[in-house]
């Protein structure tokens, strides 16, 4: 049986999750694609570290060994930071290799360029995992809301900040206590700055803007406010009015201007995001025909993120299969 040959860039939590899912669900790939998926190589920082990988998998610190692999079909990138991830993805796309990324910081800054590079090289780039983990927001907007015009998106895009606000609301604890608890449970990094100040949600909001409107607002004009200034008194006063603070990203277009903001927002009990608690993410998408729909799901973690990337992989190769037979049909029609 033919195989789809894949390489993993990064073997941290997400990379391990991808490998586990691909190893466990080969039968589903065979049914969906008529092929198995093979992890042929993994790019790592420390080659001496013990890893539970098959012996035939190339483990290397040198991207050249990966990009020169014969018949490489797809690169799945799960590296932290803008570089060297951007360079690796540029080179992969320019060589005609499909790309799937979970790198929100890098993709927020370079989405336009990478999407254009993919188009020029007639390959695909999957980025579902950059926005809301296992919640299929990209696929929903891209495939299911084609006739609908998206007017506004309101979203909880960071599980760490949502966990902290939920803990403060439900258990009458202060911000610092809730943050420490989130770190102890593994929901917050040792340095949680980008989660609590809105940077992480901002990056995801810019990716959504690129997808929905084909452009992003001027970053300097996007107001970004964190949650660390909220006090127990603020939370409890809201609760007395049957309201909750949520860290919300909003994107909408007014005339030719894209308006975006990330800030703590006081939501009434009738708002679709009011009841989204814990580490979940959610998006309320308002469009001109269907009205408002809400998507909810896990925003981060090994398996939700791996799930999003593997779903992208299946979609890409289903598209490739359809495009191949479309070309065959056109060739026969011409004859």
UniProtKB/TrEMBL annotation:
Catalysed reactions listed for this entry:
L-homoserine + NADP(+) = L-aspartate 4-semialdehyde + NADPH + H(+)
Concerning InterPro entries, the annotation shows:
Asp/hSer_DH_NAD-bd (IPR005106), HDH_cat (IPR001342), HDH_CS (IPR019811), HDH_short (IPR022697), NAD(P)-bd_dom_sf (IPR036291)
- EC class of the enzyme, as a word: oxidoreductase
Q: Which residues form the Aspartate/homoserine dehydrogenase NAD-binding domain?
A: 10-128
Keyword Oxidoreductase in record: yes
- Keywords in alphabetical order: Amino-acid biosynthesis, Methionine biosynthesis, NADP, Oxidoreductase, Threonine biosynthesis
The cross-references to SUPFAM superfamilies, in alphabetical order and at most eight, read:
Glyceraldehyde-3-phosphate dehydrogenase-like, C-terminal domain, NAD(P)-binding Rossmann-fold domains
UniProt pathway annotation? Amino-acid biosynthesis; L-threonine biosynthesis; L-threonine from L-aspartate: step 3/5; Amino-acid biosynthesis; L-methionine biosynthesis via de novo pathway; L-homoserine from L-aspartate: step 3/3
Q: Which Pfam families match?
A: Homoserine_dh (PF00742), NAD_binding_3 (PF03447)
Report domain Homoserine dehydrogenase catalytic positions. 136-314
In the Enzyme Commission scheme, what number(s) does this protein have? Answer: 1.1.1.3
Q: Which family does it belong to?
A: Belongs to the homoserine dehydrogenase family.
Q: What is this protein called?
A: Homoserine dehydrogenase
């Amino acid at each position: 049986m033919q195989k789809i040959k894949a390489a993993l860039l990064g073997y941290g939590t997400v990379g391990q999750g991808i490998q586990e899912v691909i190893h466990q669900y080969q039968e589903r790939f065979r049914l969906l694609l008529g092929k198995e998926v093979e992890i042929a190589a993994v790019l790592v920082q420390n080659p001496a570290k013990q890893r539970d990988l098959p012996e035939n998998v190339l483990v290397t610190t040198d991207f050249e060994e990966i990009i020169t692999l014969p018949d490489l079909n797809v690169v799945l990138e799960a590296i932290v930071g803008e570089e060297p991830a951007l360079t690796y993805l540029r080179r992969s796309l320019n060589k005609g290799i499909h790309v799937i990324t979970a790198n929100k910081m890098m993709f927020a800054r370079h989405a336009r360029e990478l999407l254009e590079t993919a188009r020029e090289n007639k390959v695909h780039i999957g980025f579902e995992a950059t926005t809301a983990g296992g919640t299929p927001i990209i696929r929903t907007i891209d495939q299911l809301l084609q006739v609908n015009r998206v007017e506004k998106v309101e979203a909880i895009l960071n599980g760490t900040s949502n966990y902290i606000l939920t803990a403060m609301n439900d258990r009458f604890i202060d911000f610092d206590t809730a943050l420490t608890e989130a770190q102890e449970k593994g929901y917050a990094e040792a340095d949680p700055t980008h989660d609590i100040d809105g940077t992480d949600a901002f990056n995801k909001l810019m990716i959504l803007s690129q997808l929905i409107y084909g452009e992003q607002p001027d970053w300097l004009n996007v107001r970004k406010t964190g949650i660390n200034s909220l006090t127990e008194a603020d939370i409890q006063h809201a609760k007395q009015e049957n309201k909750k603070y949520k860290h919300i990203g909003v994107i909408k277009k007014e005339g030719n201007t894209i308006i975006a903001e990330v800030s703590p927002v006081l939501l009434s009990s009738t708002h679709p995001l009011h009841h989204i608690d814990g580490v979940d993410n959610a998006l309320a998408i308002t469009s001109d025909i269907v009205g408002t729909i809400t998507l909810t799901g896990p925003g981060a973690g090994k398996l939700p993120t791996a799930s999003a990337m593997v779903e992208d992989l299946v979609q890409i190769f289903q598209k490739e299969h359809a495009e191949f037979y479309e070309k065959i049909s056109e060739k026969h029609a011409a004859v």
